[in-house]
Amino acid sequence: MNTIITATWKEMLRRKMLLITLVLTALFLAVFWFIADTVALDEGGSMDLLGQFVRRSAILSLGFFFGGFVVAFLAIFSSFSVISGEAEQGVLQSVLTRPIPRWKWYIGRWIGYVSLIGAYALLLFVAIVWITSVHAGMSRNYHDIGISLLLFLGTVPALISASMLGSTLFSGIGNGVFMTMLYGAGWLGGMVEKVRGVLPVEPDVQQTLSRIGALLSLLMPADGLNRRMQYILTQGAGQTIPFLTGGSPPSNLFVGYAVIFTIFAFALGLWLFRRKDF
Amino acid sequence: MNPVTPAIQTHELSKIYDNGRGCRNITLTIGQGEAFGFLGPNGAGKSTFVKTLVGLVKPSGGAGSLLGHPIGSLEARQRIGYLPELYRYPEWLSGEEVMKMHAGLLGIKGEEAQKRIRNGLDEVGIGRRGTDRVKQYSKGMQQRLGLACALLGDPDILFLDEPSSAMDPVGRREVRELLLELKQRGKTLFLNSHLMEDVETVCDQMALMLNGDMIRGGSVEEMLKVKVRWRFKVGGFSPVLLEWLQEESGLNIGAAYPEKDSEAEWDAPVWLEAELENEDQAGRLNMLIVEQGMTLYESAMQREKLEDWFVQTVSGRDQRGERR
């Protein structure tokens, strides 16, 4: 399995996916530094706690708006053609006739993607939190930061598992479109949830919007995990009442659903891959 | 390894896809060290059958084994090398790295892996270009790399699906020579090829597949033996002499000549043809021709080429794998 994991890393490095992402991330972080500096600027010479909190939340939202997208797209575009695309190109045929069980190949590829993109997500998380901390201060509650990090990292296996599952079902390019749409639907669910909190509409309309948002978030829970992560970073893990987040953050139940979603997508993908004809 | 155990054995092995194509009820036995040629037009189901044998597709019915191990099992895959028909290696890797990856999948490591990789690349003529990225390889080079990968594990059985289709004439000849050498080393070869010359030169056994069915099978020699024809270019011919020759030799001799108006027109040479069993018969016929005062310009065996046999066998049949 080590051979397959190493080959996956080599693929991502040689195809310059990671390099391009890292260069653009460095550019983003430079811009993000100035954005954070501008947002956090205290013109009056003093800042109350509420003002600092609002500014910190705004900086984190901006940082993880980019962070969530870039991790999602890196995960999707690196793995969307891993099975069907490689089978179409004829890469898989010579590999799968080697004396290794198919499950080892599948898990090796999964670990390869998750570990490398996870490492990138870890660096990005640390960079965004550090920049925010420099300009707007961060709580020193490492428990909350640790849970937030886990939630942020949790989007990677969720996306890779879904992408590899899609790759056993659809053509390479078809799965790319499918996964982008799926992630977009999950993101839209989060936006609906945020927007409904600030819209001046009747309670029953709010409830309908909330249901639509929740259903869309269930299709792909990656963005939901991000929203929960941001909520904990700004409010703390102990908070249960939404505060200045423009809508309800995903609940613990949703996080549990995201874990089940990931396991189910991974297991179904593996099961289909083992039965697939090439 | 028990030498009696067939290298490849299938019993009514089938793989039918949803569109009705594939291969049906293929039963064959190939002994260890034999070279088997699998022929058939495009879409006949040859590649499907090979993919079923190497474990890439699950059979719809029947059974098969490689050296006594069920097809698709790890034990069976441990003993094979496979060169797919349409394949590409990751273009971001070099030839050596591709080989190294395959060595890892085979469980070959360290110095042994390095040695095999070097030898393999040299054997197929890639040599030092092994350090180049695959994306810089021509189709022929990629095919050579595929062959090197197939040979990497020193397999007992080699499945080669169109092994030299993208190569130039020199490359084809080199591959043919390599296949003959592998055969001499006792490897079992299963060759899917449109290149009849490869099959004719390398293989002992062959089978023809059409629309998913194996319609003929046997030794190459046997299949072509009945059709050994001899041709004789003779001068001073006349139809009377032909009758005499037929009576005297007891053979069915044909002659290709247009209608003649006068005896003078028989001066031009004429081609006589006969299906003969052996060279003794040809010698006797030569003697009878000369004895009758005809001039023998040329006497040659027209052994039927596999290509002629192939075209004759499939002509007039549906051969594109249409749904039935």
UniProtKB/TrEMBL annotation, chain A:
Keywords: Membrane, Transmembrane, Transmembrane helix. The keyword Oxidoreductase does not apply. It comes from the Bacteria. The chain crosses the membrane at residues 57-77, 110-133, 145-165, 172-192, 254-273. This is ABC transporter permease.
TrEMBL record, chain B:
Residues 8-236 form the ABC transporter domain. Keywords: ATP-binding, Nucleotide-binding, Transport. SUPFAM superfamilies: P-loop containing nucleoside triphosphate hydrolases. Gene3D superfamilies: P-loop containing nucleotide triphosphate hydrolases (3.40.50.300). GO terms for molecular function: ATP binding. Belongs to the ABC transporter superfamily. This is Multidrug ABC transporter ATP-binding protein. It comes from Saccharibacillus kuerlensis. The lineage of its organism: Bacteria, Bacillati, Bacillota, Bacilli, Bacillales.
